[in-house]
Amino acid sequence: MAPRGSRPMLARAALAGSAACFGLMAVLARKLTQPAMGFTPGHLAVLRFLVGIVLCLALFGIRPKLYAPRGYRVLISRGVTGGLVVVLYFYALARIPAGQAGILYNLFPVMATALSLHFFRERPTVHLLLAVLLASAGVVLVLGQGRVAITLGRGELAALGAAFFAATSAIAIRAARPTNNATTIFFFFSLVGLPVVAPFALSPWPRAPLPWMMGILMSFMAFLAQLLMAEAYGSLSISEAAVWLQLTPVATYLLALPLLGEPVTGFGLAGVLLTVGGVAYGTLLGNRRPG
User: Is 0.90 surpassed by the pTM of this model?
Assistant: First the structure.
């Protein structure tokens, strides 16, 4: 077991790794939803949950004691909210530009910080709140590219709904972590979330082997990302985790250059620097208390 003083540092490293895995997952998902690949967002959501269930069952077979659910209500709520996030976000992406959907969806760490005041009586420092705002502003630059004009139609409301359920999902993970390990939490997320997204995968599936190999890799990245995120919530407050979670769209943006050929712009680089600066600021000063 890691010494108590090193747990926050390990949790921050886990969130950084989670952001990288989520970023690679998103880039692969973009590639797989191109017409030549044949996958739809609904297909990918179902595949992601199915692979997660299989991997969790394999881990439970190797280490039977790893399956130790406590508090089924919070575990099931994690699965339901996670499934709603996927459905609403995909609906938003079908109706509005990806940049706008991403900006609205990535409000969820800010929402989770606000919810933590009620559910966990967490009182983040002024430095940590400022870090969340700085990192969020960087995400707006990365995704908006300096051209942010958001109305309030069905797509925007769906993205905001996805952000809200992502925030409640984060609260559920934080509530479950004291009595459940990360693998058990992810297993229920996949098991309960699968029937939520299944109706969106009724169209014909691709048959070529390459898209399936890439789809399984995407699902494995999602598995690692979710495990690392759930593990980190055992040692960090919601507000500090919110700062680190803003690295996810930055990782997606940077990985899209070599893997998809998407260009890097001045606004994007400024957003990357601002987000990373916000994360560093929150880590260095966010948890200091006056003597």
Answer: no
260 vs 216: CA distance, rounded Å: 18
Q: Which of 156, 146, 163, 160 is nearest to 245 (CA)?
A: 163
The DSSP element (H or E) to which 81 belongs, if any, is helix 72-95
The domain ranges of the chain are 4-285
Least confident piece of the model among 37-51, 147-161, 174-188 = 147-161
The answer to whether the CB of 139 falls within 8 A of the CB of 163 is: no
d(CA 103, CA 125): 24
Higher pLDDT, 62 or 82: 62
How does DSSP classify residue 180?
S
Nearest to 101 by CA among 143, 39, 54: 143
Q: To which residue do tokens 């809200």 refer?
A: 164
Q: How far, CA to CA in Å, does 166 sit from each of 71, 89, 124, 283?
A: 20, 10, 20, 23
